[in-house]
Amino acid sequence: MKIDIGITDTQRREIAEDLSRLLADSYGLYLKTHNFHWNVTGPMFNTLHLMFETQYTEQWTALDEIAERIRALGHRAPGSYSEFASLTTINDDASSVEAGDWKGMVKALVLGNEAVCRTARKAFDAVNKADDQPSADLLTQRLQIHEKNAWMLRSLLE
């Protein structure tokens, strides 16, 4: 059935492609955050274990919101490791950070949150051209959360 929501087919495709990249980056960051939650050790264990859990729990919910927006635009949401790997800008370096290197974990998550922010910002061009308020709202929410997460993590390193 034809989709007629006031956004052209071309615009919906461009937005869905941008949101697919955001989904891939978000999934990569989710995996890294969950990995560090499981593997953090040392004097910052309790603080970081809880912080990472709060962040990956929120990220998990966001994955569904991003994927459902892609579907609402009439496109298939990527959902495999190979698709995510081809779309993401997040470095898969979590296994290179030692369990006791909490500063390395925090730094990697700062960089990951900042990467998600950059990907979200790039999507605004297509979203604004299409006057797609729901996607703009989603991007704004993701930016607020990832900028705040990056700030909170960064503050641990100062």
TrEMBL record:
- Gene source species: Pseudomarimonas salicorniae
Q: What is this protein called?
A: DNA starvation/stationary phase protection protein
**Family per similarity comment:** Belongs to the Dps family.
| Source species, domain of life | Bacteria
Q: Which residues form the Ferritin/DPS domain?
A: 18-158
Cite a single Pfam family from the UniProt record.
Answer: Ferritin
Q: Give start-end ranges for the coiled-coil region(s).
A: none
